[in-house]
Every structure is written in C-alpha cells, then in structure tokens.
Amino acid sequence: MVIAVGVDVVDIDRMARALERTPALGPRVFGDLDTEGLAPEGNAASLAARFAAKEATLKALGGHIPGFSWHDIQVQRPAQAPPTLVLTGGAQRASQHKGINRWHLSLSHDGGVAIAFVVAESLEEARV
Fold first, then answer.
1. What is the pLDDT of residues 49-94, one digit of tens each?
2. How many structural domains are present in the chain?
3. Rounded distance, CA 128 to CA 120, Å?
4. In what order do the strands lie in the sheet with 113-121?
5. Is 9:52 a contact under the CB 8 Å cutoff?
6. For a Cys-Cys bond, which of 56, 57, 65, 101 suits 116, CB 3.0-4.6 Å?
7. Would you say residue 17 lies in a domain?
C-alpha cells in the first residue's frame, strides 16, 4: 500500500556553485553512502540528484522531523543496481511511525536539472 510520495528538483549549476562557494556544505549534507563511488570532481549532477532525493523523502515523511540530520537520508548506489534510500536517525523513526517499510527511488538529470521521485510503501495490507 502506498503511504506517500515525494518529488523534488534541483538546479545542477546552482548546486555546483553552492558546493564551490561553501566547501563545508558537502560534508554537512552528504554522507559516506551519498558520495561512495563518485569522482572528486564533476559530480554536481549526481549530488544534485541525491539532494533532490533527500528533499523528496522529507516531503514524503511530512516535512519537519524532530532531531533530523541530512545524513539521516542517504542514497546508496550499489554496483550494477538501482539507487536505494538508506534512512537512519530521525528519518528512520518518522518512517517507522508512519508504517513505511519499503521505499522506491528514481533519480534523473538532464538539461541542467536533477529530479528525484520517491514512493513510500507499507507491505502490510490496508486496514479498512
């Protein structure tokens, strides 16, 4: 059963400028899973898509989460597999509270824009 959806778009050039202008931004927003396998240079499109995934997930969770850290939502990209969401901390607690036990994630970037779409699902049958 679908519990919620979230979508977000990020301007890739704007993300690149923000990361260049504020070097501490990258480590503050992106965790080890987010950056695993990315080249040190030229990864603005991938990081923009991952940031969009974080925002889309927050939207699906309803917005403000007490005790939230950007590292609570990370995008993991296993080799030869689609990207997946990994939730910890406040995001994981909010997800459990809403009965979400499965996430679907789609990322894309083209024409200077990155987009993420998430679907939050409960594998339990709906109670009527």
1. 999 999 999 999 999 898 899 999 999 998 889 999 999 999 999 9
2. 1
3. 19
4. 2-11, 113-121, 102-110
5. yes
6. 56
7. yes
